[in-house]
Design a protein that fits this description.
This protein has 102 residues and is mostly helical. Helices cover 78% and strands 0% of the residues. The protein is flat, with a radius of gyration of 19 Å. It starts with 8 loop residues before the first helix and ends in a 7-residue tail after the last helix.
Length: 102
């Protein structure tokens, strides 16, 4: 006997927040290991953080479709926001005429 679960917006937002939290937690743990044991050792754990986030998204197959999409969007959101901040910073450096005058 299979039971269907009711898909609602608060649960969808919860899965989105879970994706964001998982990505941030994996990144912070990898950064903390780098601080504790040295940058070279921490560099080994950065790909593991990415692999863990991908495994989280791929492991969400039993969830309903809306929850899977929310989880994947939540996992990708911190990466997209960080890329946008870095891009804005680089554009501001490139367009500032006084940025590289010493």
């Amino acid at each position: 006997m299979t039971t269907t679960t009711s898909v609602n917006w608060p649960r969808t937002f919860g899965w989105f927040a879970t994706g964001v939290g998982a990505t941030l937690t994996a990144s912070f743990v990898a950064g903390a290991i780098g601080q504790l044991f040295g940058v070279g050792f921490g560099t080994l754990f950065q790909p593991l953080a990415v692999i863990g986030t991908i495994a989280l998204v791929l492991g969400s197959r039993p969830l309903p479709r809306r929850y899977r999409i929310a989880l994947a969007a939540g996992a990708a959101t911190p990466v997209v926001v960080a890329a946008a901040i870095i891009g804005a910073f680089l554009i501001s450096l490139a367009t500032d005429p006084n940025a590289f005058t010493f």
